[in-house]
Write a structure and sequence with these properties.
- This protein is of the alpha/beta class.
- It is built from five helices and six strands.
- β2 and β3 form a beta hairpin.
- 41% of the residues lie in helices and 18% in strands.
- The N and C termini lie far apart (49 Å).
- The longest helix is centred in the N-terminal third of the chain and has 31 residues.
Length: 179
């Protein structure tokens, strides 16, 4: 029973990584006129989660996916546990800027420069619309990072109002590899 659950968790994680990778690759293809095609890395314990190849011979891309909604997931798990125990819940805010910064800092410490040079860091997550401009401003300090690129990628969110341009998902370059 436990083995089945672990497989489902792994499969869902691969699905998320592949979805965010495909969204990012579609974005760079549209924005820069590229022809990349993404596919998951099937090697276990690799620094690369998703690759992107170009039929026209552009350099191969290596994408490392990082989940940025850890605090949100933690709060949700705590809330579910409290409700199951019949306890009250508390409402807390999560500082997205601090969390994304901690994600970038931890990956910066983890990898040597030789690995970072070829790795595009994709931070998966959800961010409220007003924070889009904030993230561009707050993360300028990472534009000189040793990573080949750093991007915040959010998939389509159905709960956004119809007139919200981010309802289709968005990509925020923190360090743009292609400009």
């Amino acid at each position: 029973h436990g083995r089945n659950k672990m497989k489902r968790v792994h499969d869902f994680q691969k699905y998320r990584e592949t979805s965010h990778g495909r969204h990012f690759v579609d974005w760079i293809n549209y924005k820069y006129g590229f022809d990349y095609q993404s596919y998951p890395n099937t090697t276990q314990n690799s620094d690369v989660d998703v690759y992107a190849d170009s039929p026209k011979g552009l350099p191969k891309l290596s994408l490392q996916m990082v989940t940025s909604n850890g605090p949100t997931e933690q709060l949700m798990n705590e809330t579910i546990s409290k409700l199951q125990r019949g306890e009250g819940i508390e409402i807390r805010e999560v500082n997205v800027i601090e969390w994304v910064s901690s994600v970038i800092e931890s990956k910066t410490k983890k990898y040597p420069d030789s690995v970072k040079r070829d790795l595009i860091l994709i931070i998966e997550g959800f961010m409220p619309t007003p924070t889009l401009e904030t993230i561009k401003r707050e993360f300028k300090k990472y534009s000189e990072s040793q990573f080949k690129g750093i991007y915040y990628v959010s998939l389509r969110v159905r709960s956004y109002p119809e007139n919200d341009e981010t309802k289709y998902g968005f990509v925020v370059p923190i360090k743009d590899s292609f400009s």
